[in-house]
Amino acid sequence: MGFFAFLILGLIAGTIAKLILPGKQGGGWFMTLLLGVVGAMLGGWLGGILFGANLDEFWSIQAWLLAIGGAIVVLLLWGLLFGRKKTA
């Protein structure tokens, strides 16, 4: 899969991850989509290394699940590190 296809996959995965995760993560939609792309790349890279996943096809269920899973992980980490601070 080419870079632009993975970029589009990451944008969609970031949107799906944002819809799956409850609550508000700091940064807004643009940051969420950017983190989705990072998460998709991270998920694809780790999936290729750990599971030997074949990510050559855009419509592969493996590619989508790894991208969405990676986006969720990155969004959760972002929320833990830079989430909205509650003031008393």
What would your notes on this structure say?
The chain is an all-alpha fold. Helix content is 72%, strand content 0%. The protein has three helices and no strands. It is elongated and about 45 Å long. This is GlsB/YeaQ/YmgE family stress response membrane protein. It is found in: Cell membrane.
Fraction of residues in H or I helices: over 70%
Distance between the termini: 48 Å
Classification by helices and strands: mainly alpha
Strand elements, count: 0
Q: How confident is the prediction overall: mean pLDDT?
A: 81
Shape: elongated
* Gyration radius over CA: 13 Å
- Indicate the proportion of strand residues: under 5%
SSE succession:
HHH
Uncertain residue ranges: none
Major beta sheet, specifics? none
- Count every helix, treating DSSP H or I runs of 4 or more residues as helices: 3
Organism: Leifsonia kafniensis
Main location: membrane
InterPro entries: Transgly_assoc (IPR007341)
Subcellular location: Cell membrane
Notable characteristics:
elongated; cell membrane; transmembrane helix; 72% helix; single chain; 88 residues; transmembrane; Transgly_assoc; mainly alpha; membrane; 0% strand
